[in-house]
Design brief:
Number of strands: 11
Number of domains: 2
Strand order of the largest sheet: 4-5-9-8-7
Structural class: alpha+beta
Number of helices: 9
Strand content: 5-15%
Largest sheet: 5 strands, antiparallel
Radius of gyration: 25 Å
Helix content: 40-55%
Shape: elongated
Length: 377
């Protein structure tokens, strides 16, 4: 286990301990309500009930299981919002006129700070759900404290806790399955091998373009590069994740074609089997009519196989299929000297990264290498 991961686990455990102390000693919750608040803080169910329901295909396909599932998710979501609104009303009635003249109770202060985190996540559209960590750590305990002033408070706290914890425990069991653990070990090994590859790059390389990222994901590329000992710029071209239970039907051929067109570096890409894109697809509104999209000053993507669903809900910015083949072009002046930039791709069979080589005769090649460089054994 890496030291960074260990520190993260220790910090999470410390926060859960603080929540336990706050719930029992400061908010004075009952043991049952305190257990629910601490369990929610420990599991942090930020991504529970996060999947989208297709309002067109699911009913027409008579997928009533999905309809029932999403309907229950909607009811639980509304129940939590109703409980939060009721907690705010209780707080206002009890302390609205005495806020500036008397010291408020600890649970009310906790509710204000937790609401601040929740409102910030809702107002900033670019943030991820993990930024609501403070809300899940403190918000439920404050809501339960407000409801504890009512006769049915314990029953409400128990019901709301079960609604979040049961699916989270089920998700945790799925995450600890053999297939999930196997994928995790392979991704961890590829991340370790990628750091070694970055550290071993020549000192002339100042920019690395990473294809099929399995390691960095939503972390900062800048800090991942520093962690690996590479002091240049790491640019993520795309990231992917494995599809559990998928078996590739054929061995992958040459998925990358790296070459020059005048002063432009061109990377032709084909997606690997049994992997899918994760979260970083560009919004549909950014594409032009030819399915080109700009990224920064020097880079552009072209998705010739991009397709739209037969029916889509209004405002679905990411409701499209980018296709399995696309192209990246960059004419960054820093890469006119090919030795200053490196492109790294993934061998999907062995989960190993390797440096790509420019096609022979396509232009100046780093280190004089010609042709496609084979994956590391």
């Amino acid at each position: 286990m890496s030291s960074a991961l260990l520190v993260g686990y220790l910090a999470h455990a410390a926060i859960v301990g603080i929540v336990c102390f706050v719930a029992l000693r400061l908010f004075r919750l009952s043991p049952l309500a305190a257990f629910g608040a601490v369990a929610i803080a420990a599991l942090n169910p930020a991504y529970v009930y996060h999947s989208m329901l297709d309002p067109y295909h699911v009913p027409r396909g008579h997928d009533w299981h999905s309809v029932l599932l999403h309907g229950s998710e909607l009811l639980i979501n509304l129940a939590w919002w109703a409980a939060l609104v009721a907690a705010i009303v209780v707080a206002y009635r009890a302390w609205g006129r005495r806020w500036l003249t008397q010291q408020p109770e600890p649970w009310l202060i906790g509710l204000v700070f937790a609401l601040g985190n929740l409102v910030a996540v809702l107002l900033l559209p670019a943030t991820e759900l993990r930024y609501a960590y403070f809300w899940f750590a403190l918000g439920p305990a404050a809501v339960f404290a407000a409801w504890s002033r009512r006769p049915a408070g314990i029953a409400v706290a128990a019901t709301l806790s079960v609604a979040l914890l049961v699916p989270q425990v089920s998700s945790l069991a799925d995450s600890l399955s053999d297939a999930s653990l196997s994928s995790y070990r392979a991704a961890r090994q590829s991340a370790r091998q990628l750091t070694q590859l970055l550290a071993a790059l020549p000192s002339t390389v100042h920019t690395v373009y990473l294809l099929d990222d399995l390691a960095v994901q939503s972390s900062s590329p800048e800090y991942f590069a520093r962690f690996s000992g590479f002091h240049g710029r790491l640019v993520l071209i795309n990231n992917i994740t494995s599809i559990r239970g998928c078996i590739a039907t054929q061995l992958p051929g040459q998925r990358y074609r790296l070459h020059w067109q005048a002063t432009t570096t061109v990377l032709e890409y084909q997606a690997p089997e049994c992997f899918e894109k994760v979260w970083n697809g560009p919004p549909l509104s950014g594409f032009d009519q030819e399915h080109f999209i700009k990224r920064g000053q020097w880079m552009s993507y072209h998705f010739p196989e991009l397709s739209l669903p037969a029916a889509s809900s209004a405002g679905a910015a990411f409701d499209y299929d980018p296709g399995r083949r696309w192209t990246v072009r960059t004419d960054d002046p820093a890469c006119q000297d090919a030795a200053a930039c490196a492109w790294i791709g993934l061998d999907p069979v062995n989960w190993r990264y390797y440096r790509l080589a420019y096609e022979a005769g396509s232009g100046l090649e780093p280190g004089g290498a010609a042709g496609a460089q084979a994956p590391s054994p």
